[in-house]
Amino acid sequence: MTDRKHKSGFVNIIGNPNVGKSTLMNQLVGERISIITSKAQTTRHRILGIVNTEDMQIVYSDTPGVLQPNYKLQKSMLNYSESALGDADVLLYVTDTVEKTDKNQEFLLRVQKAKCPVLLLINKIDLIDQATLETLVEQWHNLLPDAEIIPLSASNKFNIEPIKQRVIALLPDSPPYFEKDALTDRPARFFVTEIIREKILLYYQKEVPYATEVIVESFVESEDKIHIKAVIIVERDTQKGIIIGHQGQALKKVGTMARKDMEVFFEKKIFLEMFVKVEKDWRNRDNMLRAFGYQID
Hints:
Number of strands: 9
Helix content: 25-40%
Order of helices and strands: EHEEHEHEHEHHEEHHEH
Largest sheet: 6 strands, mixed
Mean pLDDT: 91
């Protein structure tokens, strides 16, 4: 009996903010790897989600939405998106039925020049009728004639399976890049920070969530529980007051929401302590961004 060939590859998910990249990533991986909110800039890092079978390893990569950077943090986020163009075996370019086809043309030109197969995924098709979808498909076909177009609804899990099958068909023969039991390249602490940040994005308004970063000061795990100390970093004293809230009620609410999600994620009892600290203008400070794990030129 001959050995079956092993397939492996990097499948990078790219696109503009708020088109559903993180929802798609979680559906494809089958686990909640990326945090999801309706706000732009929810994803700040490049996050890998790894799917393993006996003869295959798919390394999905969720990236920040492509935007014109206004400060150094956003420049780092754009670096993640641009690097995803260069090291993909398959590109999943995600758009939706809301955004215009001419949005961010400079990045689209780079997608047109991609050397690997491109699947153009039109998300949120549950929001439009068939005739509108056909027009949209035609417009995208003119822009990316070499791309294979697949309409989908990530939130409704519509057409997820055909995308998986096309990805598998396009994977090159290769040994695995990661251990076969790996789900992601990120440590447990990273998911603590992401879960807290998701709750901040959901609970607070305006600029406050975007001026926020989370670091884990301690993560002590035993057989049935995890003790976590986390610090929420903000840029101004006024933001610190908003995060904490009257008599600490806002921070307590966010902590409760985050703890419940962590208990599902880690399948253990979580004891969570959170503090708030001011670091002036951290989004433009190279040393702070490096400390928080961002790539800086």
